[in-house]
Structures are given as C-alpha cells and as structure tokens.
C-alpha cells in the first residue's frame, strides 16, 4: 500500500468510527503534510481518493469536509443520454483536425489531459529494452524473410496463449501481426469494403476508425450509442433493413471515448444481426486488458460462428506503446488481410516482436497488468470527482469500466474548440469532441486522459478548465441577452 493510500485508509477508519463526523472539517493539506511528515502531493492524492469515494467533499476557499453518507455523489454517468445521430452516411474529413490537435498535445510541456496515449511511466520499458538489446546482440541473421506475414511464430504463440489464459480459445493460424492496431483496423477495412461504401460506427467513435474510413474514400454512418451499453443494436437493425452497409466498426470493451463495456447479451445480438445480413464486423479490442472489474471481458469474436468478426488487438495500450505491435484475427478474410499486409508494409519489425514475446514468456505480464488496472481505476474515480467539483453545474461524464479516458459533456452552448484553444494557451490540452464524429455533433464535449499519476499540477489544470468553461458560458449568456 502506498503512502497516500495508507493516509486515506486511516482517515476512512476515523470516519467509520465516528471520530470524524459528517460536517467536520478535515485538517488542511498543509497541516496534514506537517503532522504526518508526508509530501503535499501525497496528501492531495489521499484527499482526492476519499473525495472520489464520496467520503469527503472539497469546498472552494474552505477546505475538505466529511460528507453525509446519504449525500454521496451521484453516479457520474447519470444524465449522459444515449446519442441520436442523423441516420445518414457522410464523407469523413477529420484527419487535419486530429493531426493539428495531436501536434499541440505533443509539443512543449503542456498538461496532457488531451493525449490519446497512456502515461509511458506505466510500462516496463527497461525490461523490454533489455530483451531487445539481448536479441539484437545474439541475432546476426535478422532480416526480412524472418518476419514475413503472418509474423514471428513465438509472438503469435504467446498471443494465442494469452487469449487462452483469459478464457478464449483462438487458432494461432488466424493471427497476423501488424504495426499496431491502427494498421490492423486499416487492413481489415480494406479487406471487406471498397471506396464509396458505407461503414457503420458508434457515435461518438474513436477517430482512428474515422481515419480508416477517410483514407479509403468510404462514408461513415453513425449509429445511436448508449454511454453504458454501447451501440444500439435495434437502431443498427433498422438501418440494415433499409440500406446496404458494407461493414460495422465497434469497440465493445472500454470504448474510446465513452469507456463502456458492452453486455454479453448485446454482443451476441450484434453478432447475430451481422450473420443475418452477412455484414463483417471490425472489432477493435485494444483496451481489453485494462478492465477494472474482477473478470476479463469477453469479445464479439467469441460469439462468431461464420468468420464475420475481424478482431484487432494491440500491446500499445497495455505493455509497449513505443513498439507499435498489434495483430488481427480476421476470420474468413484472413488470407486477404495477410496479402494486404504484405503489399502495404511487407513485414513488422523483428526485434520488437521478439522482445514482447520474451517478456510474455517470462516476465509476469499479469502482475504488471494488475498494478496498472488498479492505478487506472483509482485515477478514474479521482478524475470524475475533480470534474464534479470544478466544472460548471450541468456537466456530465461517462462512467468508464476500463481504459484511461473520460468523456465530458459540458452544458450547451459551450464550444469545445473554443475551450480547447483557451486551455492550450494556458498549457493544458484536451481532446475536443469534434474529433469523434464525422458530423457536427459533440461540439460541447471533451475527452480527458487520466492515465498520468495524480498531482497538484493535474488538479490545478482541471480547476483551470472548469473556470474557463464557466467563463465561456457566462460570455455566451451575456451575448444572448444583448
């Protein structure tokens, strides 16, 4: 147990025993820092943890107070309604916005709340590097023939073994190693659809899906999506009943940006619908290992009996972001995807494949994941509590079940792009909602990354974001009243 967790547990014990009662003011952060000999950051993290659990509340300019047990914070997702996009396909043109946003996020020392990437400090980079260096020294004959598609045999074996450990049997012969999940998604879409075709996606959806559609000259059709359960299968069925859809692209586990986990019944219904219309489903499962619940989540692939699910995975979110190693299990389209892989990029770099395979074989992947999952689940609660504390009344958030991103819907008519620019001028990044739709929706939404360790800097950035949002709303209200 870390120091801030010990302090939080001690204070929680005092609350449970009645030493600290509802309405009592806690010692200030600086008092606690001096009394316990802990750093200010440690105390802040402890208080934020207790706040996220509904045990205490922060009051501006007053400090922290014990909450009434019957006045616990509402469910973070309460009030975040299902999306209702226009039932028409549209061309996609989001790549310029996404590229400019990612460049801004990656430049300078901005607080990376808008980053799509996990905190690199979460991962065992040094151990992976040792494996890579050892492989490089020992292997004098590494070359293209060694790693032609489908990829390194030992890595493929370890991927199949990992699925087996999580309760899913897969055929190793179906696995094709790729340059991250992005290449897997692009190859799978290219295998099942052609330029001009319509592809169904969730709404909002991860912009990598939109990039693939844009790159191949296809059209996106956004489908109503529930923030707790995922794509509306009945709405998709209604669409399929009146028009042809070449493929459907979804993220059933901890979708980016909403973070939901699709229930098993809904997964089965979606796959059955796909089989009824012979419609391929491209399943991005890049966050599958970052679940907060006790059990590993299932997948659409587990319900597929006809090879219609093209399953895409990656180590970029759970183990080695810099290595860009992913894979596809494309079902009946396996040979076509392998051919496209060879035509597009020939091979995937050998040393990263072998280094990851060696790590999976001997270095305790599950132990690493348990630590990461626990940290992310805790930081999700802290981020939601901070948003509730600092952001304007009427703000709603998603309720992520895994992954590391939080979807925030601010009161209209707030413009997320305006907030993005104001925040960037103050050294803070956010992901504007415009990136997650082919249409004009989500103009008052942002995505926040909570994978970075909680700190006074992050808390201050969230407080600043809340003030900026409130200022924008006041200015809009004043302009309307003129």
Q: Helices and strands in order, then pairings?
A:
Blueprint: H1 3-16, H2 29-36, H3 40-52, E1 56-59, E2 63-66, E3 90-91, H4 95-106, H5 125-138, H6 153-165, E4 176-178, H7 180-192, E5 198-202, H8 207-215, E6 219-223, E7 225-226, E8 230-231, H9 233-240, E9 247-250, H10 264-277, E10 281-284, E11 309-314, E12 326-329, H11 334-345, H12 350-362, H13 365-390, E13 396-397, E14 405-409, H14 416-425, E15 431-432, E16 445-449, H15 456-481
Parallel strand pairs: 5-6, 5-9, 9-10, 10-11
Antiparallel strand pairs: 1-2, 3-6, 4-12, 7-8, 11-12, 13-14, 14-16, 15-16
Helix pairs in contact: 1-3, 2-3, 3-13, 5-12, 6-12, 7-8, 7-11, 13-15, 14-15
Low-confidence stretches: 70-77
Biggest beta sheet attributes: 8 strands, mixed
Structure classification: alpha/beta
> How many helices?
15
The neighbouring-strand order within the major sheet is 3-6-5-9-10-11-12-4
The radius of gyration is 23 Å
Gross morphology is globular
* Residues in helices, as a percent range: 40-55%
Query: For the residues shown, what is the average pLDDT?
Result: 91
Q: What distance separates the N and C termini?
A: 56 Å
